[in-house]
Amino acid sequence: MVGGLDRYFQVARCYRDEGSKPDRQPEFTQIDIEMSFVDQMGIQKLIEGLIEYSWPKEKGPISTPFPLMTYQEAIDNYGVDKPDTRFGMKIIDVTEMFKNTEISFLHDALSHTSGVVRAISITEGAKLLKKKDLENLMKLAKAQMNQDLTFFVLPTDGALKSPLAKILTNLEQLQLCQATNLHKDDVLILAGGDKAKVSAALGKLRLECANILEYRGIALRDRNTFNFLWVVDFPLFLPKEERSEEYESAHHPFTAPHPDDAHLIYTEPGKVRSQHYDLVLNGNEIGGGSIRIHNMEFQQYVLESILKEDTGLLQHLLKALDSGAPPHGGIALGLDRLIALTVGASSIRDVIAFPKSFRGHDLMCNAPDFMSAEELSPYHIQVNWPNKIHEDSTNS
Question: How many CB atoms lie within 10 A of CB 96?
């Protein structure tokens, strides 16, 4: 952008130094786009047009513009920043109902400023979920998220069953059923604690419940339904896990703040939203990007004063911005993941020619592999291999 190139796109081969998963590969392909004099809406409109134009006819039409959801709405309603909107089971906040509760663990949870009580309702869960399923959900929440749960079951006789049922008055039970829209044969999962932690736990349990219900034959996530969604207004900074008084970038350190929050950067950086946007399809992130900072002084302040970064290695960037960089932004789409979701593949390895193994090996080319000095010589490359690596390579 600084060099005068107004806009570009590239089909880029990328490498990710991490383990493989069904929706990830060490080597993958992105459609990378950068543009000058563009805003968030311009990027979104371009991508919507690209996907609509290239969408397979046999998959049926898709409607644009794609719906927008803020990051906070996604976390509050789904517990994740890439929600699958093909099914309901949204998170419900019932904090107000338990504000004056005498139930000890809920009272303790609400004694903190960030304390909440939240729940998800499983339609006909009493019929579809077995006792072992509920026990496994409790174990999952405790083992992975250190979160305690309480279950409420509303059987056909209308008498609410729960370890807490005897503690709640009839009026409170009725209010809980009304607040969560609980009907006969439904199951309610209740959790209390820190808002972020509770939301994340219920978000994971929501997806796990969907897996269980689909195993029982209930179709929740139709593979022929394609729900595209823009998630916007992410936080610009997040507290560091090891030192919560310090900040790190939620996306990357060159992301521009939301125009309405730019003034907070100097006083309350933790409250600043960003111009970062993700494109989500059926609960999978298929693209992400941002509008960039194009002001040198502002970029330097973010790097040095907020992120405490040494700008010595970024002087070329700061000088480039100081020379008069235009407003600019971009996005990258994960091509492999988009195609895998479109055709219903269970892994992106199914849509990649010569995919890498889960250990990152190319089985077709037997790479990576040891090369002798004679093979490297024509390329004027010399490698001093540690003895152990050399021995392991020759023995394998």
Answer: 11
pLDDT tens profile 255-271: 999 999 999 999 999 99
In the chain the first and final C-alpha atoms are separated, in Å, by: 47
Give 292's DSSP letter: B
Tokens of 333: 């789409």
Provide the Cα torsion 84, 90, 91, 92; round to 10°. 160
Let me know if 334 is exposed, middle or buried by CB neighbors in 10 A (0-12, 13-18, 19+): buried
Q: Average pLDDT for residues 272-284, to the nearest whole number?
A: 97
| Helix intervals (H) in 159-314 | 170-179, 195-215, 296-301
For residue 327, is it left (φ>0), alpha (ψ between -120 and 50) or beta? beta
Spatial separation of the C-alpha atoms in residues 238 and 309, rounded to whole Å: 15
What interhelical angle do 131-145 and 195-215 show, nearest 10? 140
Cβ atoms 335, 31 nearer than 8 A: yes
Please, what's the largest Cα pairwise distance for the chain?
84
Q: pLDDT tens across 294-342, in order?
A: 999 999 999 999 999 999 989 999 999 999 899 999 999 999 999 999 9
Answer yes or no: are the C-beta atoms of 207 and 79 closer than 8 Å. Answer: no
Q: Which pLDDT value is given to residue 394? A: 54
CB 334 within 8 A of CB 287: yes
- Return the structure tokens found at 250: 């939620």
In DSSP notation, 147-165 reads: ---EEEEE-TT---BSTTT
CA 181/CA 129 separation, integer angstroms: 19
Task: Locate 379 and state its tokens.
Answer: 């390329």
Cα(258)–Cα(166) distance, rounded to whole angstroms? 49
Q: What is the mean pLDDT of the chain?
A: 91
CA separation (Å) from 103 to 100, 109, 165, 379? 9, 10, 11, 73
Cα dihedral: 138, 142, 148, 154 (round 10): -10
pLDDT of residue 392 exceeding 60: no
